[in-house]
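step=encode ok
step=design start
structure_in=
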């Protein structure tokens, strides 16, 4: 079985490094990184990942719009997306799910086990079917 590709989209370099470090401890993944949604769209078009961690608040193109644009593409419809946000507001999780994210994690991520569980579930089962 080939290594799973994970795209981490996060503008904060420290947050991105911490998440990448954790992911590398969870398994032998090919991890690619983007600092904004525009970069993420380009990377997905070039070589689609198996899963995306998407920060919602970023410069250039935020995660909300990047997710909307990904979901409008054939390849983007198949990739599970886990939303990340530091400024979690009431209703953000429901809004993230409504724009097409498959799961949601509020930052700072204090329990790495949450990341591992969501990662394994979505990599194993793929994107949940919406009705």
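sequence_out=
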């Amino acid at each position: 079985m080939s290594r799973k590709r994970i795209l981490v989209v996060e503008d904060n370099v420290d947050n991105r490094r911490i998440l990448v470090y954790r992911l590398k401890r969870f398994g032998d993944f090919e991890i690619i990184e983007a600092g904004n949604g525009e970069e993420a769209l380009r990377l997905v078009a070039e070589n689609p990942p198996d899963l995306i961690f998407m920060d919602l608040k970023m410069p250039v193109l935020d995660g909300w719009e990047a997710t909307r644009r990904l979901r409008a593409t054939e390849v983007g419809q198949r990739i599970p997306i886990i939303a990340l946000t530091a400024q979690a507001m009431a209703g953000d999780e429901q809004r993230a799910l409504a724009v097409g994210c498959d799961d949601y994690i509020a930052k700072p991520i204090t329990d790495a086990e949450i990341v591992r569980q969501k990662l394994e579930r979505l990599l194993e089962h793929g994107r949940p079917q919406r009705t």
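step=design ok
step=annotate ok -> The chain is about 40% helix and 20% strand.
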